[in-house]
Amino acid sequence: MFVKKLVEKAAKKPGGSSSEGLRANDVEPRVVLHYGIPSGSHLFAYDPIQKILAVSTRDGRIKLFGKDQTQCLLVSEEASTSKFLEFVQNQGILLNVNAKNQIEVWDLEKRLLSHVHAFNGEITSFRVMQHTPYFYVGDSSGNVSVLKIDQEANQVIQMDYTIPYLASNGNQPLYIPLGSEPPLETSCCFVGSPVETSDDTSVVSILPQPTAESKRILLVFSSGFIALWDIKESKPVLKTGGHGMVKQEAKKATCACWVCPSGSRVSVGYSNGDILIWSIPSKGESSTESSAMICKLNLGYKSEKIPIASLKWVYGEGKASRVYVIGSSSNLLQVVLLNDQTETRMIKLGLHVSEPCSDMEMIMADGNDQGKHKQGSLFVLGKSGRVYAYDDNMIEKYLIQSQSKSAPSLPKETLVKMPFSDSSSITVGKFLTNPSHLLNLSDEDYAQLAKDAASILPSQTVSKESSRSAHFPGFTKVKNVYITGHNDGTIGVWDMSCPFLIPVLFLKEQTDQDIPSRGTAALTALHFDSNLRLLASGDQNGMVRLYRFKPEPYLTENSFIPFHGSSKKGNTHIVQSVKNIKLTGSITCIHKSQNSKHLAIGSDQGHVSLVDIEEATVIYTKHIASEICSGVISLQSESCSVQGFEKNVLVVAMRDSSVFALDSDTGNMIGTNMIKPKKPFKALFMQILDGKQDSSGNGTDSNRESIVEDVSIRQPSVLICSEKSIYVYSLAQVVQGVKKVLHKKKFSSPSICSASTFHGTSGVGLTLVFSDETVEIRSLPELSLLKQISIRGFSYSSPKQNSLLEITISASWDGDLVMVNGDSELIVSSVLPQKDTFRLVESLSRVYKKDSTVCQEGNIASSPKEKKGMFGSVFKTKPKRTTDTETESTKETIEALSKIFATANFPWNNNVERSRECNTVIRVDNEEEELDIDDIDIEDDDDHHQPQEQEQHKEQGILSGISKQKLANKFSSFKGKLKQMTAKNEKSVVATNEEKHEETSGTTVEQIKKRYGFAPSEETSAAKMAHSKLQDNLKKLQGISLKTTEMEDTAKSFSSTAKELLNAVEFNKQSSKS
């Protein structure tokens, strides 16, 4: 009876407090760090000047890797696959084309999306004209459009210049001058008749010709047709390839790349596995109507009918150049040595990648010593999103030595992964945060450590002379500590005060007793207690290891710990003792109560053991039988009143969501029944809610208690989360075996994969991570939804039976989540607002170095002339090492291109207008201004008329809108003596201006072309040019005649006035005499 009243009293105890609990304004869930290679990686891009590697994914994310440990994650609004990805080199701009044919412009300095351009058509090829603001877009209809990046307006502008399919392929139409109508026979063929989209018409590759990037581009179509397009002449100077040139089975071109620094050789890959090398006239050579096929590269893809997916060429710089080839859905990556004997004797290397390849990129090492040979790395992207690296110097060495008798060694494959361990993956983790830590290291020290630490990319090597060690003063002396357990039994300790991993300690099977090694097993549980300086680990074989550490701070002879971990002898300054305890089953959880020196340990076979920490002995072991699943997922201790006496109870949560209480001293069950839901699901998490316990079991609750001591005086309750439901029970009723649900929440789909609690300034909250990338924040104990976010790229699948998790999630007491996806990526999210989880976040996210001095020597695939900076910088100021001559040449080149691209070279092609209508960027034309008398120039100087003539094709002529009456009204405003002269000459002036406009309208296009270096159209003959010249001369003569007539009239008027004045004077004299 007494117990029943006690339970009723506890149930009626008000759950409110002076605080209203956690509110929506108290939380701000967000992703604060992404480290490593993102899942679903799809494409590569590389800026060889800034040394930035970009990796795009299938869900709209782009990861950037820069120098000195800098990393940055860009997340697009559209979760769409990337089709093309390319840098505007050294300008801090990254262009991404997604599957929806949207061109995204990313500002790398601000790390945000500055503009999205919706392209009208299916984009099939994409190429940036480096060192200029222009880029080319090829579509499925065979047309090539020119677009411009306007940095001031932060938008993409489509230029008037186009390369239509009908102009670049075969039957080229006549060039139609601007402002004139096409002939009847051409208008019915071309105007308003776009080419139907087909597999043969699409543009598969756009290649600006080396040493002539601003003058010529090579277009490769799916049909195999190759056209070398002259930008200024606006016509093809070479037509080759296609089904007519190659008399073989039907095949389609899939990719192409230059294989010569002068642009005289191009390699084209085909859908049947062929790789052909064609000769192309380079700069200065005479153009031909056809080109010869030099040779065919037989690499075995054709025999298996594997389409060529990608080609990449590396210039040898004095040695033989190389072509890298990957086939579609093929594991084989082949490298071919190109030299004079390639056609007769081909030297090649086959690299068997661990999985089918989707993309590749070449990266030069960031070596500080310019005198040494730079190391290069070949990065290969697999279909699964994993990245593999090869030493390119080993590839080059193999190809060269294969010509000799000595047998070369094959280059080894290296999997790019996080630097947690050389050969193991994380199976369990523990994240410790210390808000009141002492600043043992300054930001400058961490910045230097970032430069010296091992990078995730193998190409960014650190010399041994400049490498530095990390000082680890202690677990509670740094901002963040991440403890990892691995599948080989290793324990890693990492300083995560900054957004990168600093290894400080490795522990593996160390003991101070003469206990033989029992073999390695994956770690499955970790527990850390800062008060006892204790780290406990449990593995799959039931082995529990207790590591006792020395008092902090840890000091060594030089106060540093080696970067690559510590040996057994090197750990003696930190580890005081190691003790082993063997239990039954795989260890699933380890718990220690605050006021006890005992550890409660659970296993997957339903055993609950109590272990003495000092003696390393087992006090008792209890086996809990279960009808469904006997595994123990969590243990929590609490002091509770049982039958009028205070007892230490141990609450046990089983895998089947059942909950019960044991007497901590004896291990006997207190209640008569287990508390379980009607429909049990796999349990994930259990926590006692009383405002005292550390939610994450970190043991670092001395700082937390000062924050939450006045937050809540609610009745103690038990929270248990499963994959499909959440229940909150009264602790007193759980102890007695009485089921009464205080709060509950059920979910249909998706499933919960992780749950944890956190402490804020106004209450305790619950963080739920779902398998569909959703993260929910709920209040406790009411379970009301406060906020939710989506972590793009996070995918979770339940592990198979007796297998380890691929994704591990660790939670800190203040709501930080560390999610590790295998050995490829790490994601950290934070819940509390205005919380700085890491130091140096801003500086270590700045991958683009705007003010850094860079050179173009890193471009391994460029020609020697390219490296001198042919174009230089175009957007802002000139580079520090660019001469005035080069800058002047650059400006002239850009100005010439801007005039060319601003002109509609094919007015009959309406692709530009259709694209502008579909795009969100609206081009507003200036309204016609009212004519003012000061704007009229009555002189005949050609320099004054040419600017007007240039605008007439765009504005349809200023004078075309001027009537005779308007001119008459303007001239009639003159007063005084000019009135008579104006009235006299008004008709002749109007007639002259009208005649001049008629003549100018017909010659506007030709004058513009002559001024900017364009060749005359095919319709212009010598006779017509002579006639035009005569008309110009006649116009000037008419103007001179008009001026002469005006001068004569003025002189006559002046003479008449003078005579009248003379007569008046004489009359006055005579009058005075008389």
From TrEMBL:
Q: What GO molecular function terms would the record report?
A: GTPase activator activity; myosin II binding; syntaxin binding
The protein's matches in SUPFAM superfamilies, at most eight in alphabetical order, are given as:
Quinoprotein alcohol dehydrogenase-like, WD40 repeat-like
Q: Provide the alphabetized UniProt keywords.
A: Exocytosis
List GO terms (cellular component aspect).
cytoplasm; plasma membrane
* Location of region: Disordered: 1-23, 938-961, 982-1008
Alphabetical list of CDD domains matching this protein: R-SNARE_STXBP5_6 (cd15873)
Annotated signal peptide: none
| GO biological processes | exocytosis; Golgi to plasma membrane transport
Q: Where is the composition biased (Basic and acidic residues)?
A: 1-11, 943-956
User: Where does the source fall among the domains of life?
Assistant: Eukaryota
The family note in this entry says:
Belongs to the WD repeat L(2)GL family.
- According to UniProt, the name of this protein is Lethal giant larvae (Lgl)-like C-terminal domain-containing protein
